[in-house]
Request: fold
Amino acid sequence: MTDVVFWVLALLAAASGFMVFRFTSMARATIALLVSFLATGGLLILLGLGYLGVVVVLMMTMEMVIMAVFMVAYMMNPAGLMPMAMYHNKRGSLAISIAVFVLLGAGIFLAPWPQRGGAEPADPTFQLGMALMGPQMLTMVTLGFVLFAAMVAAVVLATHRGRYDRFGDDLSRRSADDPVPGGVGR
Amino acid sequence: MSLQLFLLLAAGLFAIGLYGALSQQSIVMIMMGLELMLNGVTVAAGAFWHYVAPASAAGQVIVVAVVIAMAVEMAMGFAATTAIFRACDVDMTDMAADLGQ
Reply:
């Protein structure tokens, strides 16, 4: 039974991942990527990582919804009404990725993988929590700082006109320098 | 189900993502390729935890780190797209490269 589930999810993940770059519509490509992530979440659950599987499913669903919004905002062809072809050096990238796959596949089947060390814990989620709050605390703190830095950087990059644009470099201007002045004219 | 099969799937997802990241022109599609590559890393880390070292939480921690890497990649990707689109109405890498000349 688990074998059947594995094959279904694995084929779904790979096939929908491939279809991301075959669909002519951006919206369909986003949905295909979401299907690939959902299958990956299912595979994690199959491996006994229930918590992480659900985290992947929930997070990727939200991420793809946001991605779809940005697609419609930026892309020239969100609905796929006109076929799009936005490739460069298709043949070269295909050759490189096939070479990488063959290399990785050879390594997978030739490497002497170690035997399974230890038994699975009764509750993998508990194991993860204890690790993150214990020996892996440094990892968690670093990831937290990375997320914080990403938030600040994203806001800085996405800001159109910040207060330094409006009030001068030393914020000394009395009234804001806006293209369309607001306020009540005092 | 075996470690090799999971790793083969991970390698496949990684290669598909690599193809997308290399061949696509649109910045958003390149980000999709990168996400697929990270998706492969997630599968591999989960399989390593299950088949090689279930007694240690290291495999699970790698999955957490990869999920956070995906979130950061997407936030920064969209922020950079927003900035470059606002500055010069461009959402393709080749056009952005032309601007540098």
User: Anything to note?
Assistant: The first helix of chain A runs from residue 2 to 19. The CA atoms of residues 145 and 151 of chain A lie 10 Å apart.
